[in-house]
Design goal:
The complex is a heterodimer of chains A (about 375) and B (about 190).
Chain A: H1 2-11, H2 14-28, H3 33-41, H4 50-67, H5 71-77, H6 83-111, H7 132-154, H8 179-187, H9 190-211, H10 227-251, H11 278-286, H12 295-319, H13 323-329, H14 331-357, E1 364-365, E2 370-371
Antiparallel strand pairs in A: 1-2
Chain B: H1 2-12, H2 33-61, E1 73-75, E2 87-88, H3 92-95, E3 97-101, E4 105-110, E5 121-123, E6 128-130, E7 137-138, E8 144-146, E9 155-160, E10 166-174, E11 188-189
Antiparallel strand pairs in B: 1-10, 2-3, 3-4, 4-9, 4-11, 5-6, 6-7, 7-8, 9-10
Classes of the chains: A mainly alpha (about 375), B alpha+beta (about 190).
Chain lengths: ~375, ~190
């Protein structure tokens, strides 16, 4: 038992957990034909069968039942703040399963030349609302209200002592739905992670209908028709948003250090986290000279890297790997799409740079509040 | 009132004469094109004046006559009360200041994390300030070296009064990245 807990703690280390999820993700949600070939060869398409639903739910429930026997695990998962996350893990799997299994069913139907499940030829151009739809909605409203009422009575809000500006709780956690953003703030300057990137997330979500000019798969579940779109969206949704929320809830402890789910939250856990800026890497570590006094000279390497990433990489990709996409989307759509994707990818890139090399900022100009 | 209803019925009535030429006073209904525009201008001016007045008054609230905030300058006792090599926590709750004494003198550090403004904790065993919000760590000098904090903790003006007590003035800040820690009042030589 202790061996298993230790194994889970080890697998929960961010480097291992995130690397594993990244590697496996594109085989579960294949963005291209090559990935899909392996997706079928590795039998991941079996994930969306009824049998897998039961097996995976049983494994999840079994894991939680086992875990609740451990006091450290229990105190994290059953804290009233964190109960939504425990529920989120189950619900996320369930809803992903339901959408994906329906999509795979429709894909099979379309392959056989049959109409999809959601195909509905409305008589006289009308759909049934009363009482068909309204009754279902009424029942849902009543059940959800009853559930929320019981929940709010059963798990009261954890009221703590009056706020005191000179004492921040340790760890000080954002509301659960913002924990992904809080995780992002660990790797970026507050301006970037608090203002620029969240705005880009909202802009990007608004831009989806304009970027995605594929009319297939509209109005019914399907995967085959829009592999890349679903894969990218699921990556942003499941990994960059929800995985970070789960990490922030379950794996972040005192002093914002990483802890395994079965690990005691020791506020004196020592972790060597001395961070170094790119300019210090280049001038102090590699060239063994002091930092130049001129800000421009000091940060020129970081500025070049960031400019290259956002200005040189998109046309380069348009000429090579993403040629087909560039031709399909056109210059304006492609530019917007690729800049949004690259901006989203800065998060995992910076997470790895921090974990592997303790790199703090690629561009660090604290004199003018600009760090990237 | 009866007059108004009378007018109204007069305009609605099918037997009423066709409206007079535009821009000219008509037969006593009171509103023609020109007076409509002057009334419209008066209405808009009144609206602008009212909202302008409202926002001016609101803006006024941002500059209260009396500020109920702790005094920004305080006496922090005599230098002998501070041990060499110790971080003193006694002013943290009331004024948000850590007073640190080293071999050469005394400096006053702000307790506001330069990342997003939480209050770090002084961990004596690890000899560092560690912020519980995003894990920023600062050395005893205030230099940032862990986590996302982009710049060192700020220092406050620290001087000696005539009676030999330390005076910390929080209205004047010294930032390391601007090279201000070398200023004479950022550090009290003892």
């Amino acid at each position: 038992m202790d061996g298993f807990k230790h194994l889970v703690d080890t697998l929960s280390r961010p480097t291992i957990l995130v690397t594993f999820t990244f590697l496996i993700f594109f085989f579960i949600f294949p963005p291209s034909d090559w990935f899909e070939k392996w997706h079928r060869r590795l039998k991941f398409d079996g994930l969306w069968s009824k049998k897998s639903l039961w097996i995976i739910t049983a494994i999840l429930v079994g894991f939680f039942v086992f875990g609740l026997g451990d006091s450290d695990f229990r105190s994290i998962m059953l804290k009233p703040d964190n109960v939504p996350i425990t529920g989120l893990i189950f619900l996320l799997f369930f809803f992903t399963w339901i959408a994906m299994s329906q999509a795979y069913k429709n894909d099979a139907l379309q392959e056989a030349g049959l109409p999809v499940d959601e195909q509905y030829d409305a008589p006289n151009d009308k759909v049934l609302v009363w009482p068909d739809l309204v009754y279902v909605e009424l029942i849902s409203i009543v059940l959800c209200s009853a559930f929320m009422l019981i929940w709010s009575i059963g798990l009261p809000a954890p009221l703590e002592e009056p706020a005191n500006p000179s004492e921040s709780p340790n760890p000080a956690k954002a509301p659960w739905y913002f924990l992904g953003l809080q995780e992002m703030l660990v790797y970026f300057d507050p301006w970037m992670a608090g203002v620029v990137l969240p705005s880009l997330i909202i802009l990007g979500l608004m831009a989806i209908p304009y970027l995605d000019n594929n009319s297939e798969g509209s109005g019914y579940y399907s995967y085959k028709n829009r592999k890349l779109s679903i894969s990218i969206f699921m990556f942003g949704w499941l990994i960059l948003w929800n995985l970070l929320i789960v990490i922030g809830t379950a794996l972040r402890g005192p002093n914002w250090n990483f802890f395994g789910p079965f690990e005691y939250w020791d506020s004196h856990k020592v972790e060597a986290l001395t961070n170094v800026n790119l300019s210090e890497f280049i001038y102090v570590k590699w060239m063994s000279t002091g930092l130049p006094t001129s800000i421009l000279f000091r940060e020129i390497w970081g500025i070049l890297i960031v400019l290259g990433y956002f200005l040189v990489l998109p046309p380069l990709l348009a000429k090579t790997k993403l040629k087909g996409m560039y031709e399909r989307l056109g210059a304006a759509r492609y530019s917007l799409f690729i800049v949004l994707i690259l901006a989203a990818l800065t998060l995992p890139i910076k997470m790895y740079l921090r974990w592997m090399f303790n790199l703090k900022y690629i561009i660090a100009i604290p004199e003018y509040f600009f760090n990237f | 009132m009866p007059k108004a209803t009378e007018k109204k019925t007069a305009t609605i009535a099918p037997s009423s004469p066709p409206p007079a030429a535009l821009g000219q006073a008509d037969d006593g209904s009171g509103v023609n094109r020109r007076s409509f525009f002057s009334w419209l201008s008066i209405g808009w001016l009144a609206f602008i004046a009212a909202t302008g007045g409202f926002f001016t008054m609101m803006l006024r609230f941002f500059f209260p006559n009396v500020l109920f905030e702790p005094v920004q300058t305080f006496r922090a006792g005599y230098p002998d009360e501070y041990q060499v090599g110790e971080v003193d926590l006694r002013w943290k709750g009331e004024y948000g200041v850590w007073i640190v004494r080293n071999d050469e003198g005394i400096y006053a550090l702000s307790t506001v994390c330069t990342h997003l403004g939480c209050t770090p904790n002084w961990l004596a065993t690890e000899q560092k300030f560690k912020c519980p919000c995003h894990g920023s760590g600062f050395r005893k000098t205030g230099i940032n070296y862990e986590g996302p904090a982009p710049r060192p903790l700020e220092r406050f003006r620290i001087t000696l009064s005539d009676d030999g007590q330390i005076i910390v003035d929080k209205t004047k800040k010294y930032q390391q990245e601007k090279g201000q820690w070398g200023d004479s009042e950022a550090f009290l030589k003892v």
